[in-house]
Amino acid sequence: MGGKAFSHGPEPLLTPRMPPAVYLPLLERYRVDLASFFERVASPIEAPEKTSFGDIDFLVSQPKTAPFQIESVGGALNAKRILSFPPLYSLAVPYPDLEGSFVQLDVHVCKHQHFDWELFHRSHGDLWNLLGSSIRHFGLTANDTGLHLRIPEIEPKNRKRAMICLTADPNEVLDFLRLDKTAYQQPFDTVEHMYEYACSSIFFWPEAYVKGDLKANDRKRMVQRDLYRRFVEEFVPNRQSAVPHRDDAARPLREEVFEEALERFGKGEELVTRLRKWRKEQEELNHKHATREWRKEQALETDAYADAWINSSKSRSTAGSLKPKKGIE
Description:
It contains eleven helices and eight strands. The chain is of the alpha+beta class. It is extended, with a radius of gyration of 31 Å. The N and C termini lie far apart (103 Å).
């Protein structure tokens, strides 16, 4: 939450940014503290060149006692206030040697099977925002549950149902995207190093960062995420000027990526099943729609017939009333 979770409301708390000299010791201290409550505790690798930190982020899983109570954690950490947005909890803990100030500690409780992926996906700050804009072009989506392949036939009508989860294994994803696994496991020395890493994937797509053609989510990132904005406005244009453009013939097509992903991750049968179900549903929906339209047409014809009959009856009645009456003899 960027360290601002407690800065709003009727009784805001002061949560100043932390220099590395404050942040790093607290990171280790609270890692040890949280390990008393959870089997797994880790903090994502930070983005490069950060000179201050707005909060401390932890991913945790497998509570040691059930049911899990955030109040117990807050009490042990001497939290002044707790905000609960399950599975995310923000705790205001004391800022060392700064009375009246607090540190925002964000604790994200993960499902055990998702822990490794979420830790991987949240590492390096905006890296996955950079990668996501490129791989989107090839029908790929990375979210908090794994790397997904979008089915073109379904995507225009239902993007969520169009996604097949390929894998949530970090190493398999890096191999598929042709990204160096060793480099990913360490913090990047500089922002430029991280930018170059994002561009090293075979799926890097410079056209995805043309400022005037950005998707809605990317335009939002341009306002909110400085590293993303600098990548779009400065790094990619300068890189494209300095480095010869990749031959279009060497770029994989979406259809080729689709086939490779299905084969590599063994998702062919799931695709067939998904498409069969989707097409059956669409056929039923089309039939229902056609039936409704037929009924509407029938109703309109019935209404038109009824209106014509009523109008005809009125005409006959009016004509009859205009005939002269016979006199009484």
